Amino acid sequence: MKRLGALLVIPLLAALLVTPAHAAPAPERVQARDVRGVGVWEMRGVTKALRKSRAGWYHAWTAEPPAYVGRTRAAFVPMVWGAGSVTDDVLAAAAQHGPWLLGFNEPDLAEQADMSVDEALALWPRLESTGLRLVSPAVAFGGADAGGWLDRFMTGAEQRDLQVDAVALHWYGGDWRPRRAVAQLTDYLDAVHERYAKPVWLTEVALMRFDGGARVPSARVQARFVKLAGRALARRPWVSRWAWFGLPAPAKGPSSGLYRPGARPTAVGKAYAALP
């Protein structure tokens, strides 16, 4: 969902030991807190907010940690945003922040990375050259659909013997009844996992509707969803990482963000920080 340059894991020493490109990744030993993360963009007090959130990791739709984020416990995970990001400099920067690398951002949307499956497959060996474990491009929707963008990418990757160690997804729920929304989310995740039999990274998730512009439910509803979704995701050990959208919230008004400027928690921020 995030546009490059606009608002919209934990690094291990073992990452320096590059395994064969297509070997299955060794199982991760990840603490429950380290599974949950958050998408981050610039805001006054962003470092303090990231610390207060207790997130185990974060991404910023960039290949290297942004300068506006200071020292935190949360690990940074790099991303190669789109076709224009596949450069020697970007890949070299990403390689310094492994062991994981997130693939292209919503290539199935014209307003995001906007890439054909063939284009993504042709560029993928460049991502492999980093020696990092690779997470698939994160589709906006239809990840479990036969013949959908992700399905065609995964089929092509298998045919070309390309490395894809985990599958990335985005999910924005339009049903603002928290229990039903969680059921819809987990049904989707279960279907994706059944189709590809790989670890899943849910790199953007929130309750949000896009009819007539992005709209969110009340803070109480969003907070309830975070609490229930966190429990449901914890029961699925193959959900390797998930990241709330996002850490910042505007100074006033409704938002799915966790913290307002100055690291002031919203209701959903308090619910997120209270997760185990």
TrEMBL record:
Record's signal peptide: 1-23
Pfam families to which the protein is assigned, alphabetical: Glyco_hydro_cc (PF11790)
Domain of life: Bacteria
Domain Asl1-like glycosyl hydrolase catalytic: start-end pairs: 51-272
Nucleus in keyword set: no
Family annotation (InterPro entries): ASL1, Asl1_glyco_hydro_catalytic, GH
SUPFAM superfamilies referenced in this protein's UniProt entry, alphabetically: (Trans)glycosidases
Entry keywords, A to Z: Signal
PANTHER family: ALKALI-SENSITIVE LINKAGE PROTEIN 1
Protein name per UniProt: Asl1-like glycosyl hydrolase catalytic domain-containing protein
Organism: Nocardioides hwasunensis
